Amino acid sequence: MERVKMAEAESLETAAEHERILREIESTDTACIGPTLRSVYDGEEHGRFMEKLETRIRNHDREIEKMCNFHYQGFVDSITELLKVRGEAQKLKNQVTDTNRKLQHEGKELVIAMEELKQCRLQQRNISATVDKLMLCLPVLEMYSKLRDQMKTKRHYPALKTLEHLEHTYLPQVSHYRFCKVMVDNIPKLREEIKDVSMSDLKDFLESIRKHSDKIGETAMKQAQQQRNLDNIILQQPRIGSKRKSKKEAYTIFDTEIESTSPKSEQDSGILDVEDEEDEEEVPGAQDLVDFSPVYRCLHIYSVLGARETFENYYRKQRRKQARLVLQPPSNMHETLDGYRKYFNQIVGFFVVEDHILHTTQGLVNRAYIDELWEMALSKTIAALRTHSSYCSDPNLVLDLKNLIVLFADTLQVYGFPVNQLFDMLLEIRDQYSETLLKKWSGIFRNILDSDNYSPIPVTSEEMYKKVIGQFPFQDTELEKQPFPKKFPFSEFVPKVYNQIKEFIYACLKFSEDLHLSSTEVDDMIRKSTNLLLTRTLSNSLQNVIKRKNIGLTELVQIIINTTHLEKSCKYLEEFITNITNVLPETVHTTKLYGTTTFKDARHAAEEEIYTNLNQKIDQFLQLADYDWVAGDLGSEASDYLVDLIAFLRSTFAVFTHLPGKVAQTACMSACKHLATSLMQLLLEAEVRQLTLGALQQFNLDVRECEQFARSGPVPGFQEDTLQLAFIDLRQLLDLFIQWDWSTYLADYGQPTCKYLRVNPVTALTLLEKISREMKDTSRKNNMFAQFRKNERDKQKLIDTVAKQLRGLISSHHS
């Protein structure tokens, strides 16, 4: 049973599967039936499936037959109707054919017209398409034409902008055209062309700037000078809370700011022409002299092209080269002030341009670059000024140079450049200026001293008197009371020298102006320079005059008088310096004037020269002495040369009335001592081998004349017989021989109360030997002395005895 049930179950499954396959065959496309049938043959019951398929086919045939039987009459009716329609259709066809033939005949012209219309429409469409394409290409061509025009007119920055629009906006729209490809290929070449042309313009600009730097600097320095003059005027007016002008206010040279985002001008004009006629009231600014558009254009062009760093490096490198050229001074710069001015103008012009570039561009130059250039320029400028200023020997040129350096420093300081080193260098030039002043005043003093007549200044009227008083501080109540004409005690070189000292002080003060020095520093500088003038320059000039060979005693006396009055005027020079510097002499560290010492030294030198000159004059007179040392006759008068000498001394000492008493007394005493010494030398000189008592008597008359002169008091102030002591040695020696008082001399020798205390045994022995030789000379004895031969022999013995004793005294003295 179970087996039967299982068979039935399998049969039911197979039947259901066959049913499914049949439905699938009925509903599936014929092309896809293969897999279905394959599944049938893959099974084992394909026989039964075939049976079921046959059964299904018969069922469908029966249904088709039933349907055909049901619709057969309608089919027959339709065929009948269709046959009727065929005849009518044939008629209609014939009518349509006839109508078509007629229509073709009638519409032949219309077809031709339509064909023509078609061609026109095609042409119109082509034209419209062409116009559309041309409208698309025209902006490209117009931009390219505009680019060419801009290149031709050298408007390079707009040309670069046009090139960018052409490349990025217009060309992509028509990129499939051949001319666009040509344009695209030319774009790099155009960029290089713009780059090269803009660089060429920059080179022209740099060359023009180098050539015209001095004009730019001159303009800047004139503006600085005008501003300084204006500041000085304002400082002279009473004002409260005034402040130093700021850099922004002083920045007048480039008062028009130029936008750094676009070029200032489209025309590359470089340096504009400037007329030679300059308006004194308004100096043109450097922006009026310079067109910086080439720099801005080139900067923007290189920035757009992505080569800004290359441009910056090139610009800075070229400007460094130009800076080195500008800082190279001409070899003859020191000869004229214009040489220095042109040198400074070029430097100022260079840095004015750089400062303007710094403030009108973004990063082309920076402060570090400017400071580096300025440090280099400052060191080279100071070195050049040190070298060239050392050649200057004209103080006026040195002063003008100082003023020019101050203006140069003030001009650059307005632009923010540190200039302290320049002012420090000016302090060095100040020392050189002092040296040139000293040389100049040395010549001035020399001319004054050489042209002076060394005579008291005569005045014949009150006007002349006041004029001299106005030139030199002199007060003398006794002189004021005297009637005209009268004389000042000093000569003309006193007021002239005094005024020249004041002029020197003024010259020193001029150099200290605008150096930003304190009053104390100015006072110290003036005092030190004035001390050099007094102690070195004036002192040397006075010494040279005093030491001149042809200087006379009158001139020396006047020099002493003059230096005395100049010495007294030193306090007025102190007051003069105090008044112009407002620094009291009592201030700590204030330098004192050494004028008093200078004039004292000069006076002492003059005094010594007087003494020397007097002695030389005495020697000249003594050279005229012509003694007959073996004369036997006794003269009754002093020698002529001595009389003339005494007369000369009297007249000379009469001139000494204006000298200080001590000077006159010293000169007189010195002259008398020199005269006594010279007379002693005449008496004892080796050439005089023999000497008679008669000659000694004549010599005694001359000495008496000298003693008479000494007693007459040629110079007041000597105590009684003081001046005669100059001749005491001669007097005692002559008295000893004339009185032949050897016993007294030998007995009292060495005692303080000895009558012949001033007689030296050596001197006495020398003179005694000369007398002895004369007595022994038989050739000069005449018959007249024959009867007195015994007396002569006795006297000779006495002389020999005295000589022996004198030698004994000399020996004992030496032992």
From TrEMBL:
**Which is a Gene Ontology cellular component entry for this protein?**
plasma membrane
Taking every annotated instance into account, which residue ranges of this chain make up the domain Exocyst complex component EXOC6/Sec15 N-terminal? 52-221
Source taxon at top rank: Eukaryota
Q: Name one GO biological process term.
A: intracellular protein transport
Chain ranges of the Exocyst complex subunit EXOC6/Sec15 C-terminal domain: 421-770
Residue ranges of the region described as Disordered = 257-280
Give start-end ranges for the coiled-coil region(s).
82-109
* Keywords, in A-Z order: Coiled coil, Exocytosis, Transport
What functional role does this protein have?
Component of the exocyst complex involved in the docking of exocytic vesicles with fusion sites on the plasma membrane.
Family assignment from sequence similarity: Belongs to the SEC15 family.
The record, for PANTHER family, names:
EXOCYST COMPLEX COMPONENT 6B, SEC15
Q: What is this protein called?
A: Exocyst complex component
Please tell me the species this chain comes from: Moschus moschiferus
